[in-house]
Amino acid sequence: MFPIPKIPATIVMPDDAPNVKQTATRSYGAQVILYNRQTTNRQELAANLAGDHLTLVPPYDHPHIIAGQGTTAMELIAEVGELDLLLVCCGGGGLISGCAIATKALLPNCQIIGVEPELADDATRSFHSQTLQTVSNPDTIADGARTPSLGKYTFPLVLAYVDDMVTVSEAAIISTMFFLWERLKIVVEPTGALAAAALLTGVVNASEKRVGVIISGGNVDFNWSPK
């Protein structure tokens, strides 16, 4: 095996991110810079920290990030074969953009539906209005979907490759997350449960269809309890 190079990493993360995410990131050796969502622009902070001596890696709005996340759908299709419908959780749009591109290349007739929280529905409104919409610090349990908007790359890709966008309630997210824990025995964070929530609560009609559901993210704070 080749040795893994120890590349220093600085991660810009909101100060209300789950403690488990902060702790895990530090345990991997990264320096974590926390910021307040209400007062600080993450992109500007990261750009200033990077300056001329660090490589800036965006969380979702970059061709390489989109391509990398698209392997999720590629691997799913390679394992299970034909799908009529693929449900994908959506925050900034990197995952759904990559998955939609890969799926349409492999299964042109497969329908791609993105799922957001009702309280953070900027991508859904953007999709249906064909105009980029934003949301400011939405109060959703799905912290990975608190992005302000789709990006300059992800917005046009969502319009070009995604067939529909829908939203799910906070109650649906929570109930689905606990269902996945209890029945599937997998640790799933709220954002990762979005697509499954749309299926299990009937927001998306999947009758007589072969359905794929992307479940992504396991940063769960087990000391958390619903309000």
Kindly describe this structure:
The protein has two domains: 10-50, no CATH class; 63-213, 3-Layer(aba) Sandwich (Rossmann fold), CATH 3.40.50. It has eight helices and six strands, in the order βαβααβαβααβααβ. The chain has helices spanning 19-27, 42-50, 63-80, 94-106, 122-129, 154-161, 170-184, 194-200; strands spanning 10-14, 31-35, 85-89, 111-117, 164-168, 211-213. The strands form two sheets. A four-stranded parallel beta sheet has the order 5-4-3-6, with helices on both faces. Strands 1-2 form a two-stranded parallel ribbon. The mean pLDDT is 93.
SSE layout:
Layout: E1 10-14, H1 19-27, E2 31-35, H2 42-50, H3 63-80, E3 85-89, H4 94-106, E4 111-117, H5 122-129, H6 154-161, E5 164-168, H7 170-184, H8 194-200, E6 211-213
Parallel strand pairs: 1-2, 3-4, 3-6, 4-5
Helix pairs in contact: 3-4, 4-6, 7-8
